[in-house]
Design brief:
Residues 71-334 form the G-protein coupled receptors family 1 profile domain. InterPro entries: GPCR_opsins, GPCR_Rhodpsn, GPCR_Rhodpsn_7TM, Opsin, Retinal_BS. By secondary structure, the chain is mostly helical. Helices cover 64% and strands 2% of the residues. A hairpin with a 4-residue loop joins β1 (194-197) and β2 (202-205). It starts with 50 loop residues before the first helix and ends in a 5-residue tail after the last helix.
């Protein structure tokens, strides 16, 4: 058996049904007739993985499930119930946490399939798993784009660019109206379809069928769910960095004319420069989106238009793990670093021993200065 099926050569005697000991079965050898429409033949050309690999992936998903449910659950609870966090900007954080929560809420289907070593949940389980993945994935991408837009308007137009709660609600409603059709069309097989991938324990859109209609669907969803939010995120954060660099340059020039070292207060001089904070925040946010969804986007494009022999079952499981991992990390990047969130968490769960200084006790002057040079907390 080739190790983990990472680079296994297709084994063309597929769906062997012999139960004799020592016989090498291919993936999907014991499928029921009603399951066959959900299983692309490409995966059945590879040897069945060892049962221990199924168990390992199942345990990894259990860890992801617990980490994401707890982390995003806390974000949903704190941001929804704390009055100090009920801002327009934080509405996007709540929506992102909901998407990440949904992303891992489907994990029990994968865990059930893994512990049963294959396509145990059947066609209905496949559609539920893939539908929730599509909703949460595209929803998270568009929410990230809205967060980038919110920070862009807040920083570049601090006096008149702040988004109102009504506008934020309209944007969130638009996100779901934008996302739901991409979930519904393959679910009801209006355009595209859902199918298993890898070891037949996960499901996604069918990116292996080479019909014109399916290829057009793959190209369309690739553009709308990956390219558009990616370009928006890159544009808005690049504008933020450019704006901050220009602002810092103007401050330095003005300080030079006034023959002073800096126009900033002593407290600001002791902290990291604004341009570095903005650059790091922008790079981190962009990197998370790129790291989580680029591998999956590349996987889908190779399946639809490239050399499908590159997509071994083991390789195809890596992008899916990436997406789930980011759903666990997001609460920490977007929320746990938020001082008001940490303060509320400390009040409600003191046994966590967070020891965050009361955000509201900070001076108004310092808060206003920081808000003019750094992204608004979300």
């Amino acid at each position: 058996m080739n190790l983990l099926n990472w680079t296994a050569v297709p084994y063309f005697q597929h769906r062997i049904v012999s139960l004799e000991d020592g016989i090498q079965h291919n993936i999907g050898w014991n499928l029921r007739p009603e399951d066959l429409p959900y299983v692309p033949e490409h995966w059945t050309l590879y040897p069945e993985p060892d049962k221990s690999l199924h168990l390992l992936l199942g345990m990894v998903y259990i860890f992801f499930f617990l980490a994401a449910i707890i982390g995003n659950g806390l974000v949903l609870w704190i941001f929804s119930s704390a009055k100090s966090l009920r801002s327009a900007s934080n509405m996007f954080v709540v929506n992102l946490a909901f998407c990440d929560f949904m992303m891992m809420l489907k994990a029990p289907i994968f865990i059930y399939n893994s512990f049963n070593h294959g396509f145990a949940a059947g066609g209905l389980g496949c559609k539920i798993f893939a539908s929730m993945g599509t909703l949460s994935g595209i929803g998270a991408g568009m929410t990230n784009a809205c967060i980038a837009y919110d920070r862009y308007t807040t920083i570049t137009r601090p006096f008149d660019g702040k988004i109102t709660r009504t506008k934020a609600l309209i944007m969130i409603i638009f996100i779901w109206f934008y996302t739901i059709p991409w979930m519904a069309m393959p679910a009801f097989e209006v355009w595209g379809q859902y199918a298993t991938e890898g070891y037949l324990t996960a499901c996604s859109m069918d990116y292996l069928t080479r019909t014109f209609s399916n290829r057009l669907f793959i190209a369309s969803i690739f553009t709308c769910s990956y390219v558009i939010p990616m370009l928006a995120i890159i544009y808005f954060y690049s504008q933020i960095v450019s704006k901050v660099f220009s602002h810092e340059k103007a401050l330095r020039e003005q300080a030079k004319k006034m023959n002073v070292e800096s126009l900033r207060t002593n407290q600001q001089q002791q902290s990291e420069s604004a341009e570095m904070r903005i650059a790091k925040a922008a790079i981190t946010i962009c990197f998370l989106f790129v790291a989580s969804w680029t591998p999956y986007a590349v996987l889908a494009m190779i399946g639809g238009f490239g050399d499908q022999s590159l997509l071994t079952p083991g390789v195809s499981m890596i992008p899916a793990l990436n997406c789930k991992l980011v759903a666990c990390i997001d609460p920490y990047v977007y929320a746990i670093s938020h001082p008001k969130y940490r303060t509320e968490l400390q009040k409600r769960l003191p046994w966590l021993a967070i020891k965050e200084k009361d955000y509201d006790a900070r001076s108004v002057t310092t808060a206003n200065t920081e808000s003019s040079t750094t992204p608004a907390p979300t």
